Amino acid sequence: MLKYFSADWIFPVSSSPIKNGVIAVNAAGEIQQVLTAAAAKNLDVVHHKGAIVPGFINTHCHLELSHMLGLIPEKTGLVEFVQSIIKSRQSDTLQIELAMQKADQQMFENGIVAVGDIANQIVSKAIKQNSKIHYYTFVEAMGFNPERAAAIMDYTKGIREAFSPLSAAVVPHAPYSVSPELFRLINTEAQNEGSLISVHNQETVDENAFFEDKTGGFLALYQFLGLDISFFEPTKKTSLQSWLPYIAKQKTLLVHNTVSNRADVEFAKQNNSNLYWCLCPLANLYIENALPDVDLLVEEGVKITLGTDSLASNHQLNILAEMKTLQEHKQVDFEKLLQWATINGAEFLGLDERFGTIEIGKTPGLNLVQLSEGFIIESDQVTRLI
Ligand SMILES: [Zn+2]
After folding, report:
1. Predicted confidence (pLDDT) per residue in 192-225, tens digit
2. 18: CA distance to ligand 1 center in Å?
């Protein structure tokens, strides 16, 4: 039994929008046909006001920080933010579980079908196993002291293995928390496993300052963490240009990129041809009150994806809200945003045969969104049709 969904506009993403188009879906949610209004004239079609788009892909989240909703002060900058997270992430197990459950449900209702999720522990496994959302877990390795690289790698691999049979990979947390030795071990592991890499990148000017000449706010962060970093010699290069050569071939997601400049983007393109650039605008505004140079990334033709980051740095986990923010602040057109929110994320996660476009044979999920003249996103409310 097929169901026929229609709306004022259908955005298949893989092809141009279809005015009053019709999508035929079977009971398993698999797309059977994509039709024009004329071709569907005699069918039993349910018409919706608005636009139908494929399910959204959230390429950056931290489900295990969901209980921190509203706890961290806004716009303090990354260095303060990281310290606040460390000070207040402990909570009782039940509260953490319930918050993750709620966050997972919220993402489902907001039309998200797949998530690239950061983990430092195993706590999110049960939620992910029982979720209607597909998860790929990035288990973060963290350790700036090169002498501890092998021990940290073993520990992180242990967590990764505990996530089995779910998809999971060992990834670097951030340039300022991973030594070159640890980066190399992670790269070898990713090559052996054929796994993905995700890394927080250039979230603040302090990150570049630390690598360029060992100055800026990160010095206070290492002091807070009780880390002696006297061994560290500044690289005289920006953060990205310092660490990217360690990960030259792997498919890699660069997350945030708030202060990446043209030289960084060009360096990145030359050094790794398999990069994806994840934007989390609402988290950037929450933490740093800044946004990445989106025009530059578009001009450079890099592949962009979207992420929500966690409820520690966002009021909601809603990809449409991220799109709306970029449309309002950076005047990005809707079709471009939609590509970032769907097929690009699906492609990065290796899920583009199932998700990301409304095409025959895929099970992308269907979302109804409200647009005004010129495809301006009217609200961040999503109606999930399937
Ligand atoms: Zn993050």
Report:
1. 999 999 999 999 999 999 999 999 999 999 999 9
2. 36
Q: How far is the CA of 309 from the centre of ligand 1 (A)?
A: 5
Assess contact for 37 and 374: CB atoms under 8 A. no
Closest CA to 209 of 219, 201, 200: 219
Rounded (10°) angle between helices 205-213 and 218-225: 90
**Residue 13 CA to ligand 1 centre (angstroms):** 27
- Considering only 82-86, 145-149, 169-173, 193-197, which range has the smallest mean pLDDT? 82-86
Architecture of the domain defined by 1-54+358-386: Roll (2.30)
Ligand 1 geometric centre to CA of 354 (Å): 25
Cα 179 to ligand 1 centroid, rounded to whole Å: 19
What average pLDDT does the segment 330-358 reach?
A: 98
Q: How far apart are CA 145 and CA 157, in angstroms?
A: 18
Q: How far is CA 131 from CA 17, 70, 128, 315, in A?
A: 31, 24, 5, 21
The whole-number average pLDDT for the span 309-315 is: 97
CA of 233 to the centre of ligand 1 (A): 26
Domain residue ranges in the chain? 1-54+358-386, 56-355
Per DSSP bridges, beta strands 3-10 and 45-54 are parallel
Q: Which contiguous run of DSSP H or E holds residue 34?
A: strand 31-35
Tell how far the Cα of 199 is from the centroid of ligand 1, in angstroms: 8
Residue 316 Cα to ligand 1 midpoint, Å, equals 14
How far away, in angstroms, is 34 Cα from ligand 1 center?
37
What is the sign, positive or negative, of the torsion defined by CA atoms of 246, 250, 254, 260? positive
Residue range 56-355, CATH number: 3.20.20.140
Q: Report CA(280)–ligand 1 centroid distance (Å).
A: 9
pLDDT, tens only, 22-63 = 999 999 999 999 999 999 998 999 999 999 999 999 999 999
